[in-house]
């Protein structure tokens, strides 16, 4: 084995990001690492490259235990990494990027000609013919990606980790990159390939390893699984899940919000959606399928460039989030750390934020009212905090999520969009958030829940919309809402019963 | 070469054009005398701008240099007045002090992860205060070496004088060019300006480079202080207020991107000479207020900022 991990464990406050993961990489193979967000892929990679320090377990390089403390040390051992965002300097020349830190010198001065020659040599065999004296930013992302690979291979030369390398490439560029990858495989490198494009995974990989919730789920040759099995393993559930039965919401169309033909070019194909009062709509799909993009169109964060939105009072203005909030919409985004909470502000300040924004800054909410509201929501949502003045950043993930929910509930929206509301929070808080969703729906609020956890979707949703390849491919209602049907719809459209959209 | 070098070409073109305009109006301006004076009068600014160029390309800023020049002058004057130490030894002492001062600021910027603006602003007040501590009044320097240095020049064809001070400036620029364009340190400076996190991932010793960048700027500020004290034969704590801003202006007019990562040392020389040329023109004219210098420099700066924004957009659209 070229590179192995044994019982690798890494814990962050509140979550176990890696739970005794064992993983093997052979020389001369492309090994895909699969899993949804939060499955532990990045954590595993960061432990391998020294960006994180593991809590326990071993990393073996050619059988020898290694303890990389930094990416540079990992590189010196032989493990190179290329990230989605090219980690090179766009303002330097290609040659400078390739040789940075080991430029040929004479008497302390860089020998430009030798440096350029060395860069040319490093790039030979990668099938790109470029002028290494030009600055990197004059070339396409694909070329930059290959330059990054050339640097990584030159400096480490044994293991190459490709973290979502194809995310911003077009089809032709992906082929160009894959040619390079195949060539490196033939040269005996061990390559770890991370991508959420399953077609690409099947095209290039020899073996697959699937992670879920920080645990190793399966490792198998790519030829022995199909898409369906793979998605089942990634999303993780038993196929015989029973159907959730629940009363249909009031669907008389009276208080419905009708989206017709809304979409945004390049992000999500136009779709129709009618949101009834008191309804929970689930949205399922793999990472990058267009789920979040749909939510952003619905909330005006990335405004629709087509279609219309209407309710019983006429057209609804969704040009930007402000307009959407004014129209009674609310959106709790996927990454609460960067898009949701303001860590330095207190629980109270975070809760009143959206309501205050809606009132306008010229009409501040009186302090007493703020305190009353904060205490009310802390009690109602059971937010565990010593008091309302504690900075939100110090709370656990689940409680932070509840604060965001409180923020939006305080505005009393009619349509609430929750993008991955239960990610990275513990089981107890998980159940509480689901119960909360049911509570507010009973009061007549409509909710769109985006989630990778199918059990959760099945448990709370009246309807489930399935998104694939940036399109809304099907809609499952009533009896059809089962984890099984959802997986089938994600995997292939033909298998879906009653594709209604 | 690339569109990256365009601001440099623009700088050179503007300088030549400005010189042409001056020449048409005052043919006497095209003489080695004027050129010699241009170099001598702007020597201290050119030297300090060399350090500033490296700082700005690294993505930083050094506001302390004006005060450091004043401190240098006062320090040299006071030490020469009160002790019998040889001026050359005093120079060495001074350069050691200003270099260490710059290094200390660089260290703070890196270790405390503080914005260079704040740290060097503190440095600016410190150095200015230190010069007042040494003397409140102007201290004249009457050392024989000073008289020798002032009189040292090479007569160019056309009877223009290439003074020692002018030569020191040219040498500083040449050293700056070599350091910036021909050494690993120079490449690291560009790398830092291109993106600190990426530079660190690629193995650049970010801390060491940051310290070296500000130490270099401190050294150049000290050298500039020596040149300024020779130029004025005195040390005065109120001298060179705002020179750091003139230096920044010269660097930007020289085509260096204020956000870091892009620029040329030669451009800075042209930037300094352009600013000097405007001043010379006003002297030749005789009727214009010297404040016109500031107005023209302001206009030039604005133009270069717009040019850089335009280029940035061009590069994105490529």
Automatic annotation (TrEMBL), chain A:
Entry keyword set: ATP-binding, Nucleotide-binding, Repeat, Sugar transport, Transport
Source species, domain of life: Bacteria
Keyword DNA damage included in the entry's annotation: no
InterPro entries linked to this entry: AAA+_ATPase, ABC_carbohydrate_import_ATPase, ABC_transporter-like_ATP-bd, ABC_transporter-like_CS, P-loop_NTPase
SMART domains tied to this protein: AAA (SM00382)
Stretches assigned to the ABC transporter domain: 3-238, 251-494
CDD domains: ABC_Carb_Monos_I, ABC_Carb_Monos_II
GO molecular function: ATP binding
PANTHER family documented for this protein: CARBOHYDRATE TRANSPORT ATP-BINDING PROTEIN MG119-RELATED, GALACTOFURANOSE TRANSPORTER ATP-BINDING PROTEIN YTFR
Full protein name: Sugar ABC transporter ATP-binding protein
Automatic annotation (TrEMBL), chain B:
Membrane topology summary: Multi-pass membrane protein
Primary localisation category: membrane
Annotated TM spans: 6-26, 38-57, 63-81, 88-111, 117-141, 162-180, 211-231, 238-258, 264-284, 291-312
Keyword Membrane on entry: yes
Keyword annotations of the record: Cell membrane, Membrane, Transmembrane, Transmembrane helix
Database matches in InterPro entries: ABC_transp_permease
Pfam families: BPD_transp_2
Compartments (UniProt record): Cell membrane
Protein name as catalogued: Sugar ABC transporter permease YjfF
